[in-house]
Amino acid sequence: xxxxxxxxxxxxxxxxxxxxxxxxxxxxxxxxxxxxxxxxxxxxxxxxxxxxxxxxxxxxxxxxxxxxxxxxxxxxxxxxxxxxxxxxxxxxxxxxxxxxxxxxxxxxxxxxxxxxxxxxxxxxxxxxxxxxxxxxxxxxxxxxxxxxxxxxxxxxxxxxxxxxxxxxxxxxxxxxxxxxxxxxxxxxxxxxxxxxxxxxxxxxxxxxxxxxxxxxxxxxxxxxxxxxxxxxxxxxxxxxxxxxxxxxxxxxxxxxxxxxxxxxxxxxxxxxxxxxxxxxxxxxxxxxxxxxxxxxxxxxxxxxxxxxxxxxxxxxxxxxxxxxxxxxxxxxxxxxxxxxxxxxxxxxxxxxxxxxxxxxxxxxxxxxxxxxxxxxxxxxxxxxxxxxxxxxxxxxxxxxxxxxxxxxxxxxxxxxxxxxxxxxxxxxxxxxxxxxxxxxxxxxxxxxxxxxxxxxxxxxxxxxxxxxxxxxxxxxxxxxxxxxxxxxxxxxxxxxxxxxxxxxxxxxxxxxxxxxxxxxxxxxxxxxxxxxxxxxxxx
Length: 539
What we know:
By secondary structure, this protein is an alpha/beta fold.
């Protein structure tokens, strides 16, 4: 008897290859009035792979992508890896110089770009492109104000390529499938390497945690470039679900897509949840007729927004993770006994980061000496991860990889506690925690107190130098349309919810700076007060 062949390497390419055959006539992608079946979607991905191979793209190389949430963006998540190359999906809000740095550092061999975003590259075209083949997807938008000379048309390229599957599979499931560059707020962005195995497993994890099946309709409110859309770019295809592309994330567009496309699932930061609430209110919708399920992260959702979603017939699944963990790595699993709790207490439980994802293996909170903190809900430590869905490492940066993975654990830089039931709760980023007069102040706790005020729509709390206490909390607040509140009123409101030393010492009314994924750029706010000074914690 001969020895059996070793198991085939895990790769999310298998998801599309299977369901291109199993569900050929089922709708795979909705893009406005256009519909692509799984047969068409699979064929287009194969054509892209063959077209790229014709340009000399192959294993071990990289292809960059600059596009909003479009069908072409989805196709790149399959077509590029089908050549053996790794996909580098770039944040669409970066400057030309930042994009140029990523293209150079990633050693990109080609750039797939949406025509609408090309003008952003013009100021650094010589350094950003420098002879790089630029394949342009010209969607139904206004003509681009600028295109580099010699661009290739995306649709024409696909039309001239074979729709036969390349048949490429990784020799090792730990081969790199994509490289995701971090925001780089404290230096140059780092390229986080994802493997075929990790992408496959986190795609499956998302399906398990969100309860998705063949009838699921996934709405793209989360940027596909962010952690490869938390791996939903691959996971939705695993169950034969439907992708609904959304070029611009706006309240009215989200609500219209939920109603018209029959969306059942979406993801996004808490600010996206607030957009849904605003869009529903503007449309006169008190509750959606179908139960929706949303996965939220980027910042702990306030109990107030969780309660608002529940009233709209939207179940909130609170997850937590980083670029280095393929997106979500923990989930706040709802315990049956919680459902009998009062709404606000339930929402407070649901705001925790929770327990490891099904296949995440291990997430713990360690003190400065590397010991796990007591499960008392009070002792602060750093959240660390290891296992199936932790990055392969930083591309071309072994020093940063060694520092982040010291002791065999990925060190997140997030501070949290572990509750007696084993659930983790974030208290702050290490750079955001405020130490005032020797007392720790969680900016998240102060922000949740502010969110409980009916006039507050958006808020962020940062530290400000103080001669007596070292530093004190101050708040930035955006009010709801038509609502008013004074600085004194909000400070007094917080003093009624928190220990007085935790209440903000000042309130500034303005819109908050955010990243394209919804995270508040606290370093921008903090810099106003700490610029030119010796700061206790550098962010």
